[in-house]
Amino acid sequence: MSNGMAALGLIGFLVWMFAAVLGLVLAVLWILMPFAVFSIRRRLEEEQALLVRIEGHLAKIAAREPASPPAA
To answer: CA separation (Å) from 8 to 18, 22, 36?
Structure first.
């Protein structure tokens, strides 16, 4: 009977340790998430500005080129 209680205590301790480590990892990720979001937001704004410039250049090129008939 003593071995069964010891094994049950060990299993309970392992479950508690797993939950504690998982909670710690989730807490660290929760704290770091806003920094990742703001970093991604800044990069997306830079990409959007680049796309606007590319669209402007393409519009200038399209205005210079005469319209060609579609290929058959």
So the answer is: 15, 21, 41
